[in-house]
Amino acid sequence: MADPEADRGSDALALIPARAGSKGLPGKNLRKVGGVSLLARTIAVAQAVDGVARVVVSTDGEDIAEEAVGLGAEVHVRPPELATDSSPVIDTIRDVLACSRERGTSPRYALLLEPTSPLRSVADVQGCLDAVVAGADSAATFTEAALHPHRAFVIEDGVARTFIDAAVPWQPRQALTPRAFQLSGNAYAFRCADVPPEGLSVLFGNSAAIVVPRERSIDIDDATDLQVVEALLAMRA
């Protein structure tokens, strides 16, 4: 198993997917929290991670590309077929890695950092990269699930039943076992040579989990999320 401390000077690529056409929150990736855009925050974190040699922003937006270049990132022009609401992010990863191979700059490791996680820390990202350098095929950040599966319901024709058969949702939270976790969205990492040629999952092979606190795991999806992050940043100031 490799020593992550010895190999942090590797040629990792940090990929930031920043599509221009968000419908739920127009212009989302350039929206500002704490006076700094979501894109700029993500680029700054990527540049601070040991082992990251290149920061690449994949986008179909000219304004996003302009800001990325101004902040020292490379720009990968995303093909239209990969810039729709239904385009899976793994296809963008494959496209960027294919272009890197064609240019003779294929990295050993890559990170996926979506701009919608503005409260991530450098340590969150570093943990994922170190995990794949140490031998994992892929890694991602997780946080404790906001809703335990035993408390979820299915409603069909107005009738409710537990999502998991025989679940008892009225148990105290501490009695719900095993603990449930969800992807936090802070960071993903993987060995580039092991990215599968098909499929939707960004996690594959031997997947490492980096657990991060919920207060760093807010994903920006709408204007309310922006307001929550603004409030949290104000409290930290």
Structural summary, described in words:
The structure is a single chain. It is globular, with a radius of gyration of 19 Å. It starts with 11 loop residues before the first strand and ends with a helix. The chain is 25% helix and 24% strand. It is built from five helices and eleven strands. It has one domain (12-145, 180-236): Alpha-Beta Complex (Spore Coat Polysaccharide Biosynthesis Protein SpsA, Chain A), CATH 3.90.550. The protein has a seven-stranded mixed beta sheet with strand order 5-4-1-6-10-7-11, with helices on both faces. It has a two-stranded antiparallel ribbon with strand order 2-3.
Q: Estimate the mean pLDDT confidence.
A: 93
Shape: globular
The poorly predicted ranges are: none
Please estimate the helix content.
Answer: 10-25%
**Intertermini distance:** 41 Å
How many domains is the backbone divided into?
Answer: 1
Main β-sheet, in a few words?
7 strands, mixed
Strand order of the largest sheet: 5-4-1-6-10-7-11
Q: Provide the CATH architecture.
A: Alpha-Beta Complex
Furnish the topology, listing elements before pairings:
Elements: E1 12-17, E2 32-33, E3 36-37, H1 38-47, E4 52-59, H2 62-70, E5 74-77, H3 89-102, E6 109-112, H4 122-133, E7 138-144, E8 153-156, E9 159-162, E10 181-191, E11 207-211, H5 223-236
Parallel strand pairs: 1-4, 1-6, 4-5, 7-11
Antiparallel strand pairs: 2-3, 6-10, 7-10, 8-9
Sum this structure up briefly:
The protein has five helices and eleven strands, in the order E-E-E-H-E-H-E-H-E-H-E-E-E-E-E-H. It is an alpha/beta fold and 237 residues long.
